[in-house]
């Protein structure tokens, strides 16, 4: 089945950019559009009330969102110069995997391509694996790049 719309979650890690390279190849082969998405997540171990009383944390979140928007716009511009149709989205205030799956549905994506940091053992248990959660929750095919 040819893919028409590819969703690519992006953060500032090298593995996310590796996933982006795979997405470009597949998008080019199928003449598909690309939606780039970044997650601006609050710390799941800290309650919302803490953010109301801690302006420095709130500033950190705004800075993270500004950085994510800048990263997405830079990638969008690069991809558009290469002839791709590109959209961007920011996910806010939801767990990353839920946000990724929700955005995939909203934009009618038919493939998700994402990097996996390859955490294992206790790190995976404590931090969870966004890629694993997306695999579990998505009804779409998911290509995981390691």
Automatic annotation (TrEMBL):
Record keywords, A-Z: Cytoplasm
Source superkingdom: Bacteria
One Gene Ontology term, aspect cellular component: cytoplasm
InterPro entries noted in UniProt: Rossmann-like_a/b/a_fold (IPR014729), Universal_stress_UspA (IPR006015), UspA (IPR006016)
Localization of this protein: Cytoplasm
Ranges for domain UspA: 3-146
Alphabetical list of CDD domains matching this protein: USP-like
Entries under Pfam families matching the protein: Usp
Main location (coarse class): cytoplasm
Coiled-coil ranges (or none): none
Keyword Cytoplasm: yes
Homology family: Belongs to the universal stress protein A family.
Protein name: Universal stress protein
């Amino acid at each position: 089945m040819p893919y028409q719309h590819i969703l690519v979650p992006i953060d500032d890690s090298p593995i996310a950019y590796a996933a982006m390279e795979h997405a470009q190849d597949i998008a080019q082969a199928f003449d598909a559009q690309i939606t780039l998405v970044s997650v601006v997540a609050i710390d799941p171990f800290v309650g919302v009330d803490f953010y109301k009383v801690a302006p420095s944390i709130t500033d950190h979140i705004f800075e993270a969102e500004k950085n994510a928007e800048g990263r997405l716009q830079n990638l969008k511009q690069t991809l558009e110069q290469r002839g791709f149709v590109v959209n961007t989205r920011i996910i806010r205030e939801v767990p990353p995997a839920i946000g990724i799956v929700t955005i995939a549905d909203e934009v009618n994506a038919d493939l998700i391509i994402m990097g996996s940091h390859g955490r294992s053992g206790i790190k995976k248990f404590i931090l969870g694996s966004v890629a694993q959660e997306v695999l579990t929750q998505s009804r779409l095919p998911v290509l995981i790049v390691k």
